[in-house]
What does this fold into?
Amino acid sequence: MKWRIRMQIEEVPLAGFVKITNKDALLVLDMQNDFLPGGALPVIDGDKIIDGINNLADKFHQNEYPIIFTQDWHPKDHQSFASAHGKNPYDLFEAPGIGPILWPDHCVQGTHGANFAPRIQTVKATLILRKGFHKTIDSYSAFLENDKNTETGLRTYLEAIGIERVFVCGLAMDYCVYYSAIDAKNYGFDVVYVLDLTKPVNSPENSVSNALQRMVDQKIIFVTSDQVLE
Ligand code: VGL
Ligand code: ZN
It folds into this structure.
């Protein structure tokens, strides 16, 4: 049998202390009711990172550095939903702009599940960016939709306000946070992935180790939130 050693969370190399400057922005992915325990697409322990994200956001907010919150924002018949294909949530499925798995109906525009978790302090946001609103294209990344062609505008926004480095956190570790980190790096930003302020979906098998390995390969920097200094 062919196998390879896969990256585990405990094996990710941490960079040590990093000091934030006015060239930094904080990007918080999809801290919405549907991604928390009890929601439609629950991420285990997703609620455990709320306080840490609020504290990290404080460090940016106190210095008037930009904070971007994203909001997954699907039409009710979105093609990433298993229900749109007569299939089961988490079934493997590949189509242009959709996949590698199908999701439960989640973050439908205007529903409670799409609202931000009550305790997450979006009041500190300088920008709230919605994504995933094209019916036939999913958007894991805050920068680029899954057709790998349609930009959200975040890249241009960050460039326009002089940002050179992006700190990423939120939900989920192996989807929206991961794809946002990769795209930010591809667009020429330095990326700091805040490892303790994210939790994974963990499906399909190895989604976490594959994501971590690729980010390490792409020279994305990893820290824990206690290593982020004002
Ligand atoms: C996400 C799956 C589907 C995420 C969004 O926020 O990571 N994952 N939609
Ligand atoms: Zn979604």
Observations:
- The first strand starts at residue 18 and ends at 19.
